[in-house]
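Morning!

This is the sequence you dropped in the shared folder:
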Amino acid sequence: MLATANPYTESGSFSGYANSISHIALHDKGKEDAQKLFESLFGKDTKRWVTGKRIQPREVPYLIYTDQADAAIILYHLARYFVESFPDEFDIVPLDGTVENPEPLPGNQIGKFYMARIKAPFNKRQQEAREALFKEIKNGALDPYLLKHHINPAH
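The structure's back. Tokens below.
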């Protein structure tokens, strides 16, 4: 049984995972086999897939821990966090490469996060904290922390 994000309440996460599965299979096996795999996992009558209701990073490990699912597709930094927090309960199976040095397979979707300043009625302390955070990220001061949590900082 495969656990994923809920396609209705976390559509962005679900589509990233589902598209990775589909595109990896498409690249490796071709269109017909990729469609068969996708339908076998996520099709209308499947019995191979389970989701939580709302908060994937909490619910997916719970589904595995309680034997409601056998595996999950989840972001690498979350998988590392689960394994580090509960080493006797979880393992990582990288889609390619090793746990320490994953090498995404062709077709695997890699997410990028961006930061933006928004206009809002921040007080002076909030504005200063926001600018300090941006400064620390730009100058690389937070790189060790980001890398510790398996997030590759791009400057």
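Headline: The chain has a mean pLDDT of 88.

More detail when I'm at my desk.
O.
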